[in-house]
Inverse folding.
């Protein structure tokens, strides 16, 4: 990035500075730590200078926003054109409660809805399943059949809103329900907008919402791609997530590497299926975590964009520049919040949110300071949103694009993160004998991902225990305090009502039509055909989530995860 | 719990009594020995099956599926899973290999009253078993389990100790593709009564099966050759291997192909296990085997007793050591003297 | 030498096992024999494992807020399966509000550890409580 002569001069100057300026000073006091490392155990130098990024080329590696490799952002105007979407995720007991809340939000001008489901729905279990006992409607809305969706979207025009669904094993069922509601409202399917998370690979690595084994899970996700590019071309068919990998204790490098590898695996599966990659690419989205180490996070987001652009253009041959974009949602790190001195969490969240914005996120959820522990209080929810608004309107951060570009440290670190992530990806590719898809599946089978993440989590904890890592208010600067944690109480009434409704639906529906549709799902699965048309049919016949998942479980078996500590 | 209560509990089907007895035995409590003495005459009925193999071959899955299969056949199943323990801290993570996350029918294994699952730490011992594995199997036997499955550590090194404990030893492996076949080196080709090639869906299972069968046949031939050599006896004493092989006459270890994850081949494996037990009984080999095992166990116990007596300071042991150290006595004479004294006075 | 056996259990549908796994590792390194149950266990399964493994300590990790219903269930099933909760140190880890500590303790819980507790503290607690509780149970029985 600098001419040879100048660089030589700089290097000489550095040596001189170290000798005549730094050394005498070090002799007096030295540094407060023997070694400085970020959260990925990457050693950080005292000072970065042009020599550290001399190997980078501005146009090739950084370039302007909106241009390959998109290090500085996918849009040419970024936040000068439009701010990021402030998308706060939240869940409420029944479909009625959620509907009421949504209508209120829409009246206030919000256009993006975000759905939290309860645990049984997330696992593909009906509310009357014995395993659902006590969990129905607890951390989100319970969905058994299309009937619940009708209530959820009552009076909400689907051509006017975009809806995000954080759900994985039953993602195809939920997408089918959304299409069915659109059909009822007379909204053309190609106008439907929203996102399903639909990322099973990270469930195997970290999040543990596990129903079917890995290979059939990939098959169904590919079905959703194949069907989705034709039927709902404006819908994000997947949100490839590093968030949960990080929450499970990974490093930032692992989060970056495993998420990108998962993304590659999905693309390879789609290509194997014969899906036009330029058609699919705009319907892929990503989801990252933003943790405490400010510069490391910014570097991670920038590296992710650059890697994905290279991968899509050079490895998979996508032609449309739009296909090279990595668009992502960010959530601040729930795992970084502490129960002790909870107000400190506002500060943590602010730093993390700033990193996400400087890193160029498309949308952002900021955690409430009591969110990791409890049902967030109204005040905490407000402060969380205000944090984003203060960054947006008071800080001046969004006024120029990618303000940290050109920082010797940030460019060096962006490059370093990318290199370390590539090392992981090449390891994974080798495990798959040239295929990242096979490599990821192999890594799941052998427990590679779980081991890597668990080791990082344990190492981090060890450093906290030893006092090498300071967590303010937890292992240093502690106070005597009474921990007030309001816990979400379960209203047993929700479960009773939900089961009642399910019973009623089952009694009133055309059970012959349900059986036919379920048989169709079974046949399609057994014959390795796309299962989505059959799922849509089943959903419209009011087959339940549990019934549909039940058929898939019969065909594919359930996944049993070996325990690796 | 008192010895009396435990013994009654074991005979009366109280699982807590069994669990506590195992703890006592595992930790060398005097109560443990007492319990073992009292239940001994009720042992000898169960079929003790050992499963060994390299890490990652799917031992745990096979144990789970076999347990389900034996339960279908109305047999009560005791399971002992041995995991490595650190010789330094003494700590261990146990039993997790058999316990899987997820929702499915294998969950019933957890609460089925016909199943008892116990994990043991090897506590740093090599060979694939914990020191007291055999005694724990005995406790389960007395409790009334029909089949006792023992899963060895599976740490990759040769784990041949299982034949000291099990009536039927199963060696599990995966299809191997390379020329360099691992199982060749581990010494486990000499111990199997049944061989399993699991994860057959990976491909290459047939090749492994063929190779295995060839090796096993060759062993039989090797035996007949060795029978003619004069050194056969010495070799038999040295490794125990030829003795075993000679008495395996009439039983050529079968090779079973499985995809345990999907339950394929499990019935066949359970059949083979039952067949082998029948064979052992009908050929009276079971008595031979148990006799041989018992002679070794008794010998070990006698040595333990002697050691304990000596280290407790009896027979002037400490003084004799001093004398040997100060050259007043040579160690051979000292040993002879000690033994003589023990036999006459003891 | 008697080794302390600890059953680390996850009950309920939540999939957050980071804490439980880290604790399991540290307890092992402290010299305990640790049995980890894996995710999504029912109270029956945890209780059965506690009895069969003759666990000295049962540590239940929950993040779902269902501790008031699930923890007493585990204790009751231990009894039902022939175990003696008086002899077992029952620990709960996770997000537990302080105003529910007393109620949980009244129901038989010996120690409650919220996130951020140094694991060394848990180790010390176990070392101290195991013999104490066994002695208490013995006295109770002989009385």
């Amino acid at each position: 990035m600098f001419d040879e002569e100048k660089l030589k001069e700089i290097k000489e100057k550095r040596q001189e500075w170290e000798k005549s300026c730094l050394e005498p000073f070090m002799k007096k006091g030295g540094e407060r730590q023997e070694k400085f490392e970020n959260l990925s155990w990457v050693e950080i130098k005292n000072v970065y200078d042009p020599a550290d990024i001399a190997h980078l080329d501005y146009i090739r590696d950084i370039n302007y926003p909106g241009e390959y490799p998109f290090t500085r952002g996918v849009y040419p105007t970024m936040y000068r054109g439009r701010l990021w979407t402030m998308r706060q995720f939240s869940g409420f007991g029944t479909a009625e409660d959620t509907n009421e809340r949504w209508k209120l939000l829409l009246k206030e001008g919000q256009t993006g809805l975000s759905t939290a489901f309860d645990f049984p729905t997330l696992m593909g279990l009906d509310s009357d399943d014995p395993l659902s006992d006590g969990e129905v409607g607890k951390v989100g809305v319970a969905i058994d059949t299309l009937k619940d969706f009708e209530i959820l979207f009552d009076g909400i025009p689907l051509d006017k809103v975009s809806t995000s669904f954080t759900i994985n094993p039953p993602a195809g069922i939920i997408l089918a329900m959304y299409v069915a509601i659109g059909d009822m409202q007379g909204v053309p399917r190609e106008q439907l907008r929203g996102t399903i998370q639909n990322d099973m690979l990270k469930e195997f690595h970290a999040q543990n919402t596990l129903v079917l084994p890995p290979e059939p899970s990939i098959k169904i996700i590919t079905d959703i791609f194949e069907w989705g590019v034709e039927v709902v071309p404006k819908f994000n068919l997947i949100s490839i997530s590093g968030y949960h990998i990080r929450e499970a204790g990974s490093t930032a490098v692992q989060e970056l590497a495993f998420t990108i590898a998962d993304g590659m695996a999905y693309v390879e599966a789609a290509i194997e299926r014969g899906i036009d990659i330029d058609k699919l690419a705009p319907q892929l989205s990503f989801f990252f975590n933003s943790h405490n180490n400010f510069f490391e996070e910014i570097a991670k987001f920038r590296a992710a964009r650059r890697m994905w652009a290279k991968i899509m253009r050079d490895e998979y041959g996508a032609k449309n520049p739009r296909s090279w974009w990595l668009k992502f949602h960010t959530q601040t790190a729930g795992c970084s919040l502490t129960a002790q001195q909870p107000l400190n969490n506002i500060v943590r969240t602010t730093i993390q949110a700033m990193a996400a914005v400087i890193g160029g996120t498309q949308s952002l959820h900021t955690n409430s300071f009591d969110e990791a522990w409890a049902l967030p209080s109204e005040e905490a929810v407000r402060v969380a949103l205000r944090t984003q608004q203060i960054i947006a309107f008071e800080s001046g951060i969004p006024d120029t694009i990618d303000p940290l570009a050109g920082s010797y440290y940030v460019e060096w670190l962006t490059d370093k993160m990318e290199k370390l992530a590539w090392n992981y990806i090449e390891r994974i590719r080798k495990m798959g004998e040239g295929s990242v898809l096979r490599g990821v599946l192999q890594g799941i089978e052998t427990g590679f991902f779980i081991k890597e993440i668990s080791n990082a989590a344990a190492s981090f904890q060890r450093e906290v225990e030893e006092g090498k890592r300071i967590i303010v208010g937890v292992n240093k600067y502690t106070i005597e305090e009474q921990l007030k944690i309001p816990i979400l109480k379960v209203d047993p009434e929700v479960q009773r009502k939900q089961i009642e409704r399910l019973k009623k639906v089952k009694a009133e529906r055309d059970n012959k039509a349900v059986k036919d549709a379920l048989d169709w799902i079974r046949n399609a699965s057994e014959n390795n055909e796309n299962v989505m048309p059959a799922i849509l049919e089943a959903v419209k016949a009011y087959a339940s989530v549990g019934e549909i998942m039940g058929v898939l479980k019969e065909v594919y078996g359930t996944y049993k995860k070996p325990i690796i500590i | 719990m008192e010895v009396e209560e435990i013994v009654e509990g074991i005979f009366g089907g109280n699982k807590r009594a069994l669990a506590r007895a195992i703890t006592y035995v595992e930790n060398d409590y005097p109560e443990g020995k007492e319990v073992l003495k009292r239940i001994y005459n009720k042992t000898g009925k169960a079929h003790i099956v050992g499963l060994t193999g390299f890490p990652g071959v799917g031992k745990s899955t096979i144990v789970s599926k076999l347990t389900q299969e034996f339960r279908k056949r109305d047999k009560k199943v005791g399971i002992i899973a041995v995991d490595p323990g650190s010789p330094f801290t003494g700590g261990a993570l146990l039993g997790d290999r058999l316990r899987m996350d997820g929702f499915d029918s294998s969950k019933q294994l957890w609460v089925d009253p016909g199943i008892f699952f116990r994990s043991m730490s090897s506590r740093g011992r090599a060979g694939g078993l914990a020191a007291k594995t055999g005694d724990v199997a005995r406790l389960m036997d007395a409790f009334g389990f029909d089949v006792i499955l023992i899963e060895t550590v599976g740490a990759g090194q040769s784990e041949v100790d299982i034949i000291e404990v099990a009536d039927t030893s199963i060696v599990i492996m995966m299809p191997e593709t390379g020329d360099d076949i691992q199982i060749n080196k581990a010494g486990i080709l000499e111990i199997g009564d049944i061989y399993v090639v699991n994860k057959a869906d990976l491909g290459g299972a047939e090749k492994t099966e063929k190779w295995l069968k060839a090796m096993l046949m060759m062993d039989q031939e090797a035996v007949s050759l060795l029978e003619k050599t004069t050194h056969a006896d010495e070799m038999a004493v040295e490794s125990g291997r030829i003795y075993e092989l000679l008495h395996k006459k009439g039983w050529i270890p079968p090779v079973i192909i499985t995809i345990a994850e999907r339950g394929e081949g499990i019935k066949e494996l359970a059949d083979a296990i039952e067949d082998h037990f029948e064979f052992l009984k009908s050929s009276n080999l079971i008595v031979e085997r148990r006799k041989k095992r018992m002679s070794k166990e008794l010998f070990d116990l006698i040595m333990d007793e002697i050691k304990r007596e000596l280290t407790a300071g009896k027979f002037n042991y400490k003084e004799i050591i001093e004398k040997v150290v100060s050259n007043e006595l040579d160690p051979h004479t000292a040993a002879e003297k000690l033994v003589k004294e023990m036999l006459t006075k003891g | 030498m008697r080794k302390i056996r600890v059953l680390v259990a996850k009950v309920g549908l939540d999939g957050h096992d980071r804490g439980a796994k880290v604790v399991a590792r540290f307890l092992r390194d402290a010299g305990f024999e640790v049995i980890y149950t894996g995710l999504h266990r029912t109270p029956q399964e945890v209780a059965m494992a506690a009895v069969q493994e003759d666990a000295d300590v049962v540590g239940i990790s929950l993040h779902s807020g269902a501790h008031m219903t699930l923890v007493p269930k585990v204790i009751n099933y231990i009894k039902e399966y022939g175990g003696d909760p008086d002899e077992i140190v029952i620990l709960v880890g996770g997000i537990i509000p302080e105003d529910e500590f007393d109620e949980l303790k009244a129901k038989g819980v010996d120690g409650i550890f919220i996130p951020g507790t140094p694991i060394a503290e848990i180790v010390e607690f176990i070392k101290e409580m195991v013999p104490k509780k066994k002695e208490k149970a013995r006295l109770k029985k002989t009385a």
Observations:
- The mean pLDDT of chain C is 91.
- The helical segments of chain C are 18-29, 43-52, 67-80, 101-106, 119-142.
- Residues 5-142 of chain C form a domain with the Rossmann fold fold (CATH 3.40.50.280).
